[in-house]
Amino acid sequence: MIVSLGDVLVDIVSLIDGPISYGTDTFVRISITPGGSAANFATWASRLGAEAAFIGKVGDDVFGRYLREDLLAEGVAASLATGAEATGINQSLVDHLGERTMLADRGASATLDVADLDGEMLDKANLLHLTAYSFVTEPCHRAAHAAMKRVAGHGATLSMDASSYKVLRDLGARSFQELTRGVHILFANLEEGRELTGEPEPEGVLRTLAEIYEVVALKLGAQGGMAATHGEKATCPAPKVEALDTTGAGDAFAAAFVVKWLATGNLSSALAAAVALASEVVQTPGARPQVNLQSKG
């Protein structure tokens, strides 16, 4: 079973065709969809045919019920605690190039605590996926650390998404390395990789991170991706597509990589599956669009 732990949020995505008119009206296209990096990962893993589960926290409100129903409909075994805080909301502002800026209120997700963990679910995990967002504040930091320790006890694989260069900058590269001790698979985009290594170019980022983690997959957007283990390197270009919204593409990339990697152990195949799915996701607004998965799993 692939288990992810972390944020489950409602995404409000605003597609902005031009500059914002401050102090007055700007007309945009808005969509409201399920989101949250860890929940996105679990959903994509399930869509790709894996047995997927998710551990998180929502509020006792209409958005919390909406997210519960969505994970159930997606075939994800969800262990969702209910908190006193409202369900988290993420506002994604997407410009005409498809690049997004996030304004996030993590709400109940940020209050996930050790007592909220589903021990039975963690004991069934052959892989646990987390994101750096879970290490930003307490008590979710404690919960993430406890979950990592529990699954490591029975030899499960740990994967981690670096998530945000702003988060990494606040944590510090050395602190992040300490927090992720024992992680087998690391996902990062180029800006995150630069923040962690100080290397300016993808090759240097990949080489440095591969000295720390068993498997590293570098997300390079329109340039595709690169991946490495201690003894192997793979590159994969991205197909030329019109990127409408990059929200959630990195989560899809990570899920596709993990599912293929666990099934085959083939680095090139895992990277190709990751790039292919991410390239599909960016063509439609929202983190979890319906796409053709026949060749992505």
Structure write-up:
This protein is α/β, with parallel strands linked by helices and 297 residues long. It has a single domain (2-8, 36-89, 106-281), classed as Ribokinase (UDP-N-acetylmuramoyl-L-alanine:D-glutamate ligase, 3-Layer(aba) Sandwich), CATH 3.40.1190. It has helices at residues 37-47, 62-73, 119-123, 140-152, 165-171, 173-179, 190-197, 202-210, 249-264, 267-281, and strands at residues 2-5, 9-15, 29-35, 52-59, 77-83, 87-94, 100-107, 127-131, 157-161, 185-189, 215-219, 225-229, 233-236. It has a 9-stranded mixed beta sheet with strand order 5-4-1-8-9-10-11-12-13, sandwiched between helices. A 4-stranded mixed beta sheet has the order 3-2-6-7. Strand 8 (127-131), helix 4 (140-152) and strand 9 form a beta-alpha-beta unit. Helix 1 (37-47) packs across helix 9 (249-264) and helix 5 packs parallel to helix 7. The chain is globular, with a radius of gyration of 18 Å. The two termini are 16 Å apart. The relative contact order is 0.14. The model has no long low-confidence stretch (mean pLDDT 94).
